[in-house]
Structure formats: C-alpha cells, structure tokens
Amino acid sequence: MTSATVLGVLGALVVMVTLFEMLRRRRLREKYALLWFLIAVTALLAAVVPGLLLAITDLLGIALPLNLALFVGILVLFLMTLQHSSDLGRLEERSRTLAEEVAVLRLEVEQRRKEQQAERDAPAEDE
Amino acid sequence: MSTSGPRILVIVPAWNEEESVGATVREITAANPGIEVLVVDDGSVDRTAERAENAGALVCRLPFNLGVGGAMRAGYRYALRHGYGVTVQIDADGQHDPAYLTEMVAALDHSDIVIGARFARDGDPYRVRGPRRWAMVLLAAVLSRIAGTRLTDVTSGYRVANRRATMIFAMHYPAEYLGDTVESLVIAIRSGCKVAQLPVDMRPRAAGQASASPVRAVIYLSRAVVALGLALVRRWPATYDEGVEHQPQVVGAGVDAS
User: In what residue span(s) does the Glycosyltransferase 2-like domain sit (chain B) (predicted)?
Assistant: First the structure.
C-alpha cells in the first residue's frame, strides 16, 4: 500500500464517521448527508483502486490523473455551492413570507382586542 | 368608509420615516375623507409606527426590514383579506400629492392599474439626468411596448390597483430592489392586467435625500437592466411562491391570476 492510498482511505473514513455522527445527533439533514456520502465513497474507491482513475484519465485523453481528480473535485464543490445558494434563496423567501404574515396577523389581533375592549366598555357606559 | 364604490385602502411603506410619515398620513386623510390608510412599518428603528398611529393610520409592523416589495405585499394581503376593492401605494416621504387620488381611482374604470407618472407632459418640474435618466427612459420604452400604451415613469411608487391587480400583487409581488416597481408591472401585464398612467407633479422629498452620485446612478442603471431582463424572461407564477395560500374569492372579486 502506498502512502497515497492510506491517506485517501483515511480521509474517506473520517468523512463517513463524521457524517454518521452528525446524522445521529440530528445535526445534518439526510439529503445533504447522502450527497457527502456519495463523494466520500467515490474518494474511497479512487484511493483503493488507483487503476480506476488511471483508466478514466486514459479514456478521456487527459495527460495527468491528478488533473482529472482536481477538475471533478472543483466541479462537485461548485455545484454544491450553487445548490446551497438556491436553498438559501428559498429560505429567505420563506422567512420573508412568514414576516409578512406575522405583521398582518399582529395587526388583526390588535384590531380584535380593541373591538373587544370597546364591546366591554360600551354597556358599562349605558347603564 | 367612502360613500359609494369600493372601499379604498392606501398602503404606505415606511422605513425610518418618523419625520414625514405623520404629515403624509394626515394629508391623505384630509384630501380624501373616509379613506383608510395602512402604514407598513418596514422594520424601522425610530418612532415611525407610533407617529403613524397617532396620525390615525392602521399600522402593520414587519419584524425586520424587507424592503418596499415586502412591505407592499404585506399591505396587499391585508387589503385582500379585508375585502378592499381598491389599493393605493403612496410613499411615506411626502413626494406624492394625495390630491390626485380621486382622479387616479376614477381612471380604474378603464384599467386595472393606474400609475401616477412624472415626465408625462411638457413643463414637468421634476428633472432627472445622466445614467439614472437613461435607465428610466429604457425601462419606460420597454414597458410601454409590452403594455401597449405610453408609460413614462414605470419606477413611480405612486399607483392605484383594482381588486384583480391587488390579488396578483398579494401573491407575486417581488422583493428585489427595482423588482418591486418594474417587475411587478411586468407580472401584472403578463397576467392580463391593463396598465394606464396619469400625469402628476411630484414634490421634492419632505425629509431625507435621494441618492444622486454618478456612481450610484450607474449602479441604478445596471440593476434596472438586470431587473427588466429577468422580469421579461421569467416564468410566472414564480416557483418561490409556495406557502401562499390561495386567497378565498370574495363576492365581486376579479379573475384569479393563475
């Protein structure tokens, strides 16, 4: 076993254990966990079977296996960040909608309270 | 309550406008007796809400600052739930003269949205120059084309909407800067609303200053182009609008937007 293999396997294992622990403590939603788990499995595979990366590199006509690994890594990170931006936008929109609802409801509650107050006060004044 | 016709709600989005909001509310009610005013306090840190309440307005307090778009959508939702037939948007800074209101509401007989517009006639005292002016001209040209009528001031925050347009706005009023005016018009036109304008004179702001540096003007121009471009290519209704329940149809309500 080369040191590169050991490093790759260790890295992938650390990611998987962390994922498991975070899921167990409910610190991570399943949909994100699945994504990270797939990435960890791919890294593990690439570390254990070095021939796989070499074969794909040859197939695509790329000079260095490292180039392919870096390219794929950056692409995956980019896509995940994009996904997070989109999630963030949706969350913002939801919190905005909630804020608007809360503001309208608060006004309605205050109006209702004033109406009830007026109803209570009105008979007292008549008698 | 107004004596005849639909109930009218004036929505005033206000963010840290304690200097002018009271006077604005009083002026609106003085010029239009019986009209109801809803000030939407957009997360102000000053006494905007208190001043508005003292002036006799209903006050809706947003828990944090959402921008004009958020404030207006909250107002439109309130109007829809409480059965108002006509909604009016007026800025809190005193730029808009409420004396035009009657005329604008009357113009709803022939359209769904009426914009109180600057630059609509010769001798208009309101002047804008440089990139900000180019942005306004560009936006006006494109929107006039898709609306099929001449519009000179599409970024005006002075407008009147009937129930049909209010319903569309209550569901799809955009939050983004410039989106609130430009994009909302595009949405309304795409949903089949008829837009018209009425020439009005706008006054200098009662308090505070509109930003006028050249850099800001250029930024304004680019944002205007982006907002317009996006508004034109987007699909409506937007996919972000989950969580907005379909409003119950009240008697006399217009056609649903979708």
Answer: 10-164
